[in-house]
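Notes to self after the Tuesday call (sharing in case useful).
The group wants a holo model before anyone commits to mutagenesis around the pocket. I volunteered. Ligand is alpha-D-glucopyranuronic acid. Logging inputs and output together so the record is complete.
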Amino acid sequence: MKHFFKLMSFRKILSIIFVGTWLLFNLSCASNSDEKILFFAHSLPTSHPVHKGIVAMQESLNEKSGGKLQIKIFPDGQLGSERETIELLQIGSIAMTKVSASALSNFAPEYKITVIPYLFRDSDHLFKNLEGEVGEQLLASGTEYLLRGVCFYDAGARSFYTKDAPVNSPDDLDGLKLRVQNDQMSVDMANTLGASATPMAFGELYTALQQNVVDGAENNIPSFVSSNHFEVCKYYIFDEHTMVPDVVIIGTKFWDSLNEEEKVWLEEAADESVAKQKQYWKETVDENMKMLKEKGIEFIYPDKTPFVEKSRPVMERLLEDPQLRPIIEKINAN
Ligand code: GCU
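Result:
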C-alpha cells in the first residue's frame, strides 16, 4: 500500500481526495433531489474555445433534462494532466473528460492515426472523416478500455513555435529541443522531422520554456495564446504538421448507469455543442491572430513541401500495422 502511494503523484492523491469528497457530497444530493451530476475534468483554461464548447454542452444538457442531468466542470488541469484524467475516468472517479486524440492514442491505438503529419488535407477533409465512418470507429474504439467517445471538437492545426530560432525548413529544427505531447506518436512525429522531441504535460510547459528546458513547442493558435506561451516564444511557424482533434469521452461505467432518456439528452447536448464549438474556434483564432500581431510575434509561413516529405515515414510505419492500415487508406480515399 505504501508503495502504491509512492507511485502516485501528490497532486493525483489530492485530486482523488477532492473528487471523492465531492462525489460523496453530490451523491447525497442526488438521492435527495433526483439529480445526477457528471464530473467533467480537462486541462485547458476557461478562455479557450474548447472550454466554451464544454460549457455549451453543460447548458444544453441542463436545459434538456430540466436540471436532472448536470455537468460539473473542473478546467485548467485542476484534477491533473490529460493522462491522469483519463486514468481517473477509468477508475470511475470522474465521469467525463476532454483530451487531445494524441493522449488517447496511449490507451486506444486507433487514435494514433490522428497524429500522422499531413494526413488530413484541410479542415473540411478532417471533419468529413471525423463526422463519418472513421470518426464513429475511433469513438467506439475506446470502449474496450472503458473510455467511450462522445464527440470531437475542433483543435485546428498544430504548428511549431520557438523562443529564439526562426524555423523556415525542417533543417532548422535540427538540434532544437521541442516539447510534444506525452505519447509515442507525437515523439515520433517531431523526431522524424529532425527535432529533439521532449514529451511533457501541457501544464508544465510554460515554466519549461521560461527556464530553457525546451527551445519551443507545437500547438494550435488558441492554445499558444491561452497558455501565455506567446509571452516567451517569439516565432510561430505555420507548418501545420498535424490536425489532432480534441475528444470528449465518458467512462463506460457512467454511460451504462444512464437510462435511455438520459443517454439521448447527453448525445443531443454533445451534438449541439460541436456546432457551437466550431464557431467559437473561428472567432478565437481571428481575435488571437490580431493580438499576436500587435504583440510583435513573428509569423513564418514556410514552404510545406519539405515538411511533408521529411515526415512521410511516420505514415509509412503505421501503414505496416494491419489494424491501422485500413483506416488510413479510407481517409486517403475520402
Ligand atoms: C491542445 C489540446 C489539448 C492538449 C494540448 C497539448 O491544446 O487541445 O487537449 O493538452 O494541445 O499540447 O498538450
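Two things stood out.
Residues 210 and 232 are 7 Å apart (CA to CA).
The pocket of alpha-D-glucopyranuronic acid is lined by residues 43-44, 50, 82, 99-100, 155, 181, 202, 219, 223, 246 (CB under 6 Å).
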